[in-house]
Amino acid sequence: MKMIALAAVPLLLFALFSPVGLMSVQSQQPTPANQAAATFAGGCFWCVEADFEKVTGVTAVISGYAGGEKVNPTYEEVSSGRTRHLEAAQVFFDPAQVSYSELLEVFWTHVDPTDQGGQFVDRGPQYRTAIFYHNEEQKELGEKSKQDLARSGIFDHTIVTEISPLKAFYKAEDYHQDYYENHSIRYRFYRYNSGRDQFLDRVWEDNEFKISKTNSTSETANAYHTPDDRTLRSTLLPMQYRVTQQDGTEPPFSNEYWDHKAEGIYVDILSGEPLFSSTDKFKSGTGWPSFTQPLEPENIAEKKDRSLFMVRTEVRSTQADSHLGHLFDDGPRPTGLRYCINSAALRFVPRNRLDEEGYSQYLDLFEK
Asked: Which of 23, 206, 279, 330 satisfies CB 3.0 to 4.6 Å to 173 for a cystine?
């Protein structure tokens, strides 16, 4: 299993991530018509799958195993390191919407390509990085992108990512598929404590790596910026500043969105990063906007809040680091969660303005 090397949480992580039974695996996946396939290994396949599924033009991502000799290996066998397989993700994509070169950009900017011993908290050869090419064109593009990254000087150490032909890909057990959606709290807890995003933020904060000069259709290319404190003080209302910057709480039943019913999305009032959708909003009776799940889980960060003589889970926006509210486990189906959010931390973008304001990828949420 994936072990997080943090002294404070090993027992909890064992309970969260220990599999409850291994299911049969399937062999290599057929490529759907009019689509292409790519295979990448980047450490924990939960994370790799989640990152690639956010890319426009990617139609499916499957977590699995590649690079070893044993036929139909199980998770238990692969995680032991004995089969020589790597945790990998097979990406199906529409070449008319996203190119293989653009997928390589996504890959390089979501891994540590200099680590020979694994990825972040996951240690062992089964977690090392690799590009498994499906044809000679992918091989050439992969090798060129590796050389370009090495020449960029972004990393001080040697790029050790392997580039090898794909011999076989085996689908992982069903409970690993879409783990970031089906077990969202456990996934986010794992990902945050793995150190992956902290590393990526540190490396890519002031760097940009582009293989091709074509317009990228990847959602990961989006950037959301936050004004400086002086600007915030002069532009935000006092309640907006107190909530987002000083961890305040607005009055219940006396805020902008507690009873708001229009179709659209809610974004961070500072950075504009997408946070919640009206499709996940529900009437909680608390007097604050409440949602069953975030629109983009990677835009929500969680931390322990020990104020008011209790322990709660605070939620903040990832890019702007705005205080948003708190997360509770008393919500309705399907998640059982309640994201209790301050209206003062949100800006509503109605359905008819999504395209105009650059959020057209969310229009499908409101198609009848």
From this structure: 23
Q: For the segment 122-136, what is each residue's pLDDT rounded down to a tens digit? A: 999 999 999 999 999
pTM for the complete prediction? 0.54
| Catalytic-labelled residue, pool 340, 341, 349, 354 | 340
47 tagged catalytic: no
User: CB under 8 Å to 74, separation ≥6 — which residues?
Assistant: 22, 25, 173
| Given the residues 4, 44, 315, 344, the one annotated as active site | 44
Give the domains, in start order, of the chain with CATH numbers.
Answer: 10-221 (3.30.1060.10), 229-366 (2.170.150.20)
